[in-house]
Amino acid sequence: MVRLSERICYVGVNDTDKVLFEGLWPLPVGVSYNSYIVADEKIALIDTVECGFEEEFLTNVREAVDGRSIDYLVVNHMEPDHSSLISYMLQEYPGLQIIANAKTVPMLKGYHNVPEERVLVIGEGDSVSLGNCTLRFYMTPMVHWPETMVTFLEEEGTLFSGDAFGTFGTIDDEVVGPDGTFDQYREEMMRYYACIVGKYGTPVQTALKKLSGLEIKRICSTHGPVWEKEIDPVIALYDKMSRYEVEKGVCIVYASMYGNTAAAADALAMELEELGVPYAIHDLAGNNAGELGISGALRDVFKYDTIVVGAPTYNNGIFPPAETFMKALQARLIKGRRFYAFGSYTWAGASVRLLNEMAASLNFELLGDGLSFPQAYTREKVDMKAVAQLLK
Ligand SMILES: Cc1cc2nc3c(=O)[nH]c(=O)nc-3n(C[C@H](O)[C@H](O)[C@H](O)COP(=O)(O)O)c2cc1C
Ligand SMILES: [Fe+2]
Ligand SMILES: [Fe+2]
User: Fold this and answer.
1) Is residue 312 lining ligand 1, measured as CB closer than 6 Å?
2) pLDDT of 306-357, one tens digit each?
3) Per-residue pLDDT for 288 more than 90?
4) What gap in Å lies between CA 212 and CA 289, rounded to an integer?
5) Residue ranges per domain, the chain?
6) d(CA 79, ligand 3 centre) in Å
7) 346 C-alpha vs ligand 1 centroid, how far in Å?
8) Which ligand is nearest to the CA of 263?
9) What's the mean pLDDT in 89-93?
10) Which ligand is nearest to the CA of 347?
11) Mean pLDDT computed over 23-33
12) What pLDDT band is residue 286 in, cutting at 50, 70 and 90?
């Protein structure tokens, strides 16, 4: 338990064991599931944590409430990393009333068999008084589930934002990040956004506009540090990413079976290096794939204005890891990017044409026809110097 103010305590946990978040996204620096107690004349618990942390969570909560009972559990978001322990908490605190919006009610029933009578249903702009302070609720649908909402503790300017403004990475004992914390978490915040929230740029923009009228002095999200000192850069990053705004640079993403497409990718990276063009390079296949896999590539898609994809032809199609990447771009409605494709084949090339078709479906600007080359990579056959000139 960590005290954030007279009323607010952090009661969340760090997870350093989970390998893949949502079964998909690597966690090299872990993740935290944040939960908060607001204690006034009445006590509210804001969200819970992932299952497996029952003991640690309950110990934190007990320390924060100091023998008192809990009146309300505010459910901002039903994804199980925050809602898993709802049944458990209802057992521990039988008098607990759940505060949630109408879209949450059937989810509470379906996941935890919570009867409707147990839920105080609130809507946009409604508030609940805890005595000397007020919790006000704002709906933020599709950030990143339909029932998502945020809770604002008005007297302390504290926004319990759910997954919004969240980041991968465990947090240290202070919980509140000192100056410089944003820089430390920036890459993981971008990767979290790109992987988890990336599809929902428009709903994030709607939510940001709605919240822009609030005087926010503290952001308590469900993942990562509590923000007090660096609120502006955190909001600015979410704003920028949800507008799909990028810097000049190239994100090279490739997958290769026998190394020929890989050699072409490396050659391109070398040429870009020589030209001084900012770039990132991600191998999606085989033993050389980076520890972040596709999640690192998606992060950098939100960083740079040019996407270059390399994939050999595979059964008249795109070598599957690269096709999965293209589908991930489609799923995230990525827009406003420049695109180039390359790849090796042996008897009838198809991957480059198909990659271009997928890119065209996203209205990307194609920087030429791409480079489909037969069999081995050689410098003579594959002119990456010329490609780098196209991309710069
Ligand atoms: C299972 C499998 C399916 C393939 N399908 C095709 C194909 O449909 N058309 C083609 O021209 N080459 C096909 N190839 C050949 C590869 O495209 C070729 O070996 C290429 O050079 C591999 O590039 P890489 O070294 O980057 O992995 C296939 C190879 C494998 C192993
Ligand atoms: Fe979530
Ligand atoms: Fe979450």
Assistant:
1) yes
2) 999 999 999 999 999 999 999 999 999 999 999 999 999 999 999 999 999 9
3) no
4) 40
5) 2-242, 251-391
6) 6
7) 6
8) 1
9) 97
10) 1
11) 97
12) confident
Query: Is 0.85 topped by the overall pTM?
Result: yes
Whether the predicted pLDDT of 287 surpasses 80 = no
Give the Å distance between the CA of 137 and the centre of ligand 3: 18
User: Ligand 1 in contact with 60 (CB < 6 A)?
Assistant: no
CB of 258 shorter than 6 A to ligand 1: yes
Question: 2-242 adopts what CATH topology?
Answer: Metallo-beta-lactamase; Chain A (3.60.15)
Closest ligand 1 atom to 258 CA: 25
Rounded-to-integer distance, Cα 334 and Cα 167, Å: 20
Class of domain 251-391: alpha beta
- The answer to whether 285 touches 180, Cβ cutoff 8 Å, is no
How far is Cα 54 from Cα 241, in angstroms, rounded to an integer?
34
Measured in angstroms, how far is the CA atom of residue 313 from the centroid of ligand 1? 5
Q: Residue 345: CB within 6 Å of ligand 1?
A: yes
pLDDT per position as a tens digit, 174-229: 999 999 999 999 999 999 999 999 999 999 999 999 999 999 999 999 999 999 99
Does any ligand 1 atom lie closer than 6 A to the CB of residue 349? yes
What distance separates the 2 farthest-apart alpha carbons in the chain? 77
pLDDT of residue 289: 81
